Amino acid sequence: MSVEVFVPAADFTARALGADAVAAAVAAAPGVEVRRTGSRGLYWLEPLVEVATDAGRIGFGPLDSAAARALFANGPPNVDHPDCLGLVDELPWLEKQSRVTMARVGVIEPLSIAQYKANGGFAGLARARALTAPAIVETVTDAGLRGRGGAAFPTGIKWRTVLESEGEPKYIVCNADEGDSGTFADRMIMESDPFSLIEGMLIAGLAVGADRGYIYCRAEYPLAVDTLAEAIRLAKGAGYLDDFHLEVRKGAGAYICGEETSLLESLEGKRGVIRYRPPLPAVKGLFGQPTVVNNVISLASVPAILARGADHYRSFGVGRSRGTLTVQLAGNVRRGGLFEVPFGKPLRWVVEHLGGGTASGLPIKTVQAGGPLGAYIPPQHFDTPLDYESFQAIGGMIGHGGLVVFDETTDMGAMARYAFEFCAEESCGKCTPCRIGAVRGVEVVDRIRRGEAAADNRVLLKDLCHTMIDGSLCGLGGMAPLPVLSVMTHFADEL
Amino acid sequence: MGDGAVAETAREIVERLVALEGPLLPILHAVQDQFGYLPPACVPVIAKGLNLSRAEVQGVISFYPLFRTQPPGRRIVAICRAEACQAVGGAALEAHAQSALGIGFGETSADGEVTLEPVFCLGNCACAPSMTVDGVLHARVDAKRFDELMG
User: Fold this and answer.
1) Which of the residues B51, B63, B76, B145 would you substitute to probe the A interface, choosing the one with the greatest number of A C-beta atoms within 10 Å?
2) What global pTM score does this model have?
3) Does B65 sit within 8 Å of A220, measured CB to CB?
4) At which of A383, A407, A431 does a domain end?
5) B75-150 falls under which CATH superfamily?
6) Does A29 share its domain with A158?
7) C-alpha–C-alpha distance, residues A223 and A221, integer Å
8) In this prediction, does ipTM exceed 0.90?
């Protein structure tokens, strides 16, 4: 009888680290059956190969193909092998997580409906089918789920608005334009557990009375696009999409299309220029129809909420930040990857305890939280709990849960300049504060860094930042100054 | 490829995809997949098929960074310029790539061998710096690894 061996060859990053060659090497060994899973998200261990045993899966990694060939030369290695990491579920970095939304990620083969169902998949949909639409909305509201794309708007309230809006058809749109640097949780769901997203969208459809949906995925994620397209085809074949039309659509490299109204314009086939609000997309969204626009993680969290109840989900987290946060640790960090933890864990615990500090071994200078529009958090704030309100209180934001670690060699003035440069590059051009402000911002930062009337230019820079914050139409121009202001406040001698 | 053949292919693609809701981006992707870029001759065909003005189609093409209006080099190298990559030497990789290839971002080498493009995040942020060569992702890329990949 052959032994199941799990290789993360369905994950974009693990592939870049050689998972395909490792899978081939393992497959050539006697007595093994290779299962191509996604990644658990412990990227410093990837490619991490897991071998099924009676006690559970044991891990070996990181492996390259030569090491995998040697390891499996005489058949699957056992727990006594000197390179064995032990039971994967008991690795400290997994054991300390609370995997709710990401429970199947790295565990199952992404395109197996049978494995999805065997691991709790489609239980939430079955539960939703037994409920009325308002009852589904109420469950999501009671769970306290807030938009995981970054804005943290209560998902249940958004759904209620769409449910109560008049109009046929209604749409469910998944925002899979995960453009923030330091984030990859959406990508992991789409590549490693795509049916959870499909199930979440079907439940959303039942909740608001929508019978069609689109997943707008960035083109920079080709594997996610392909995996989703195949998952949709399989779900259709299995009868899950008989009453719901679902398509994946590919973006074309514009960061602004992660802003929901710009995304809708893009789906309609236009330039991704943002729309004025109101009307909200919930009232007049895609093609002018009532539309739910939710992030991947928000939607993929819904099946577990329905299956296990609002109270179960609420039992994680603190204050008004309920449930779990899929933290993505990136940049200059020793153990980078994905960690799903309850809201409320201190930033320091995540970065130092789970992450192990910097990869370079030098002291941490700062952590940028929440993507390119998020503040640079200085070490004196590292005891801040990871929840929406606590981060807001220190002038930061959690956003989509990306944390990018920088060591002490970082030139913070250059990072401030980059924030404006990025905004100038990605601005849709509709409103003046963002379109012109970002360009002027680069110029003013350059003058300060050259020492030209630095004091006067610092006053000007602050004024420009507040003009952009107060006057921009959307979050790009409205938040791009936040990293700049955080540098001026916490690293004043560098700008 | 001549303008006539481009127009013919574009017409077939429009016909196949026009029934989609919001068909313009899928059509542009399909045409670019075919030719490697969006030849000028496809624009009037798409405009006519979708009942848009040529300016509207051109405006959409110019808005999105991934739509190309010039043929790319035989290899397309995209280097991530975002923060997570900068935190582990991304700027040095950018500088090395430009000097090794002798071109800047958005340019194609004179011999048509390689096009260098910037990209803002590939979702590989835990194993940065990141780059792709013809869509294949590479992790933890430094100058030495870059030279190996470029052969």
Assistant:
1) B63
2) 0.98
3) no
4) A407
5) Glutaredoxin (3.40.30.10)
6) no
7) 6
8) yes
